[in-house]
Amino acid sequence: MLKINEIFFSIQGETTYAGLPTVFVRTTGCNLRCTYCDTTYSYYEGEKQDLETILKEIERHRTPYVCITGGEPLLQKEVHELMSILCDRGFKVSLETSGSRSCKDVDPRVKIILDVKTPDSGAADSFLLENLNFTSETTEFKFVICSETDFNWAEQFCRQHDLFEKFCVLYSPSYKEIEPRWLAEKILHQNSSARLQLQLHKYIWNAEQRGV
Ligand code: SF4
Q1: How many domains does the chain have?
Q2: Ligand 1 centre and the CA of 36: distance in Å?
Q3: What is the pLDDT of residues 4-14, one digit of tens each?
Q4: Is 146 close to ligand 1, i.e. is its CB under 6 Å away?
Q5: Cα 12–chain centre separation
Q6: What's the Rg (C-alpha) of the chain?
């Protein structure tokens, strides 16, 4: 059984899968409390569901893309079984995690999106460095940038761990806190190798809506 906050069908707004019709499985519970969190409803709300019920709901939407998100999905061990079954059934599975829990047992067929928390998130130092050992060429790193301090911190983190050389690194402006243009100029002027990412879904629907 997994405690699930919601399962919904929408357009992927982030990562290199941005724009693709995707089924989102949002698990309940998070060990962090980021200052900009837009899914506070996922902290406690949800219902326990067995894997067959979850799989049936996913398959109903007839898209190959499934994103496991939260909350923090890795707080619930059974999420590993769910992701493996989805891979066995031919789905392209991505996992969004803060990297504050070990990714050791994540099925290697899953695309891991590591959302490394910056100082202004209020959850800096939550990233487990051991997770750098459980990456693959499909892994992507994401940083939500809230300020110049965050930008400089992210740049240093990426350079220190050679992330730009090995992975796709995404910088997102914190929604309504940082202008996309400010971040674009910062990336250009600082000669960063990060890829600017706008949270597409927030421009299509308003922040409270998640799609259909
Ligand atoms: S990790 Fe995600 S769900 Fe958890 S507090 Fe931060 S933004 Fe919210």
Answers
A1: 1
A2: 8
A3: 999 999 999 99
A4: no
A5: 11
A6: 16
